[in-house]
């Protein structure tokens, strides 16, 4: 069964993909791991806030 995805679903999927991309680029073996993680936290929060819009009814 193929169905048409809504704009909201597409946006939520895009946010999840971006979260995955950010997380996948952080490697604990890098000397700058904690610093890099700290730099990415605001972006991750922003993406999670976007996703939260679809969870609140």
Would you kindly provide a brief summary of this structure?
The protein has 57 residues and is an all-alpha fold. 72% of the residues lie in helices and 0% in strands.
What would you note in describing this structure?
The protein has 57 residues and is mainly alpha-helical. The protein has 2 helices and no strands.
Helix-strand layout with pairing:
Elements: H1 7-24, H2 33-55
As a whole number of angstroms, the C-alpha radius of gyration is 14 Å
Helix amount: over 70%
Reading the helices and strands in chain order gives HH
The profile of the biggest β sheet is:
none
> What fraction of the residues are assigned to beta strands by DSSP?
under 5%
Number of helices: 2
Low-confidence runs of at least 5 consecutive residues: none
What structural class do helix, strand and pairing data support?
mainly alpha
- The overall average pLDDT, rounded, is 93
Task: Please describe the structure with a list of short key phrases separated by commas or semicolons.
single chain; 57 residues; mainly alpha; 0% strand
